[in-house]
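Consider the tokenized backbone below.
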């Protein structure tokens, strides 16, 4: 199986652990990620606030490239997914006309939705060799994965379930909490650091009160924000995993490496050892 892959800028830098885990998980699932040739920044997350035209044209260049490949797109970053979908919607309504041919022929998949299709879940179940039993997590979706529904097409924006499903398939115990789509403040971190620290502190508090050992995310900006700002918020450390990191752990019995988490600020290795996830 082949699908075009739009990694986005974050996976080339701060989210390199995410990128590596995605490549490993999809390889084991026998799903070939065909990186869009000469892809460029989609403009997330500031362009739509500064230039409405560019907010459509920047993603459109990547849509045109994917259409030339003749493959649907999967995007791991919720912000990138959101901007690609917005561009496709605006072009379809002839709000803007890009200089490249874009006819809307490709479907854009948010990665957790792609992997929770039943035929993909069957592949995942067949690859679990090291179920993450004893690991308690809460799943955090953030603002951009599911909203706005008229762009994403999702109706479960108050209580999404895809991260929960994937973490559960990996063998973790998924705890319920009421903050899975509450803003973490990443977008205002430069202008109002005080609000950012307060929002992060509240999320860490609520995750710990729920009894979680860790938080599971798909958004690079959310992961970076929650991971880095815990100390500033004065909270005891809590690991923040990308969902593909949990799948990778569940797939790889006895062959894990600390290098998998080298970009994490809160090192999860000691916690995973205590939970006997590493066997």
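A designed sequence for it:
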């Amino acid at each position: 199986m082949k699908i075009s892959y739009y990694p986005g800028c974050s996976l080339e830098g701060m989210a390199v652990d995410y990128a590596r885990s995605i490549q490993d998980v999809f390889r084991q699932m026998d799903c070939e990620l065909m990186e869009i040739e000469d892809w460029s920044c989609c403009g997330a997350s500031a362009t739509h606030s500064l230039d409405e035209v560019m907010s459509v044209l920047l993603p459109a260049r990547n849509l045109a490239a994917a259409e030339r490949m003749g493959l649907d797109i999967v995007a791991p970053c919720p912000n990138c997914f959101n901007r690609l979908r917005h561009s496709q919607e605006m072009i379809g309504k002839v709000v803007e006309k890009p200089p490249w041919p874009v006819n809307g022929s490709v479907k854009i998949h948010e990665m957790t939705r792609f992997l929770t299709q039943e035929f993909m879940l069957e592949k995942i179940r067949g690859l679990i060799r090291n179920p993450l039993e004893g690991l308690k997590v809460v799943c955090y979706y953030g603002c951009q994965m599911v909203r706005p529904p008229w762009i994403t097409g999702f109706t479960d924006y108050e209580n999404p379930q895809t991260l929960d499903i994937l973490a559960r398939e990996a063998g973790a115990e998924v705890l319920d909490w009421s903050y899975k789509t509450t803003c973490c403040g990443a977008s205002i971190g430069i202008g109002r650091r005080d609000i950012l620290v307060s929002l992060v502190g509240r999320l860490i508090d609520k995750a710990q009160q729920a009894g979680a050992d860790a938080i599971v995310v798909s958004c690079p900006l959310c992961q970076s924000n929650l991971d880095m700002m815990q100390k500033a918020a004065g909270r005891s450390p809590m690991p923040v995993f990308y969902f593909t990191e949990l799948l990778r752990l569940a797939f790889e019995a006895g062959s894990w490496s600390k290098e998998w988490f080298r970009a994490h600020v809160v090192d999860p290795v000691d916690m995973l050892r205590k939970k006997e996830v590493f066997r």
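The CA atoms of residues 48 and 55 lie 5 Å apart.
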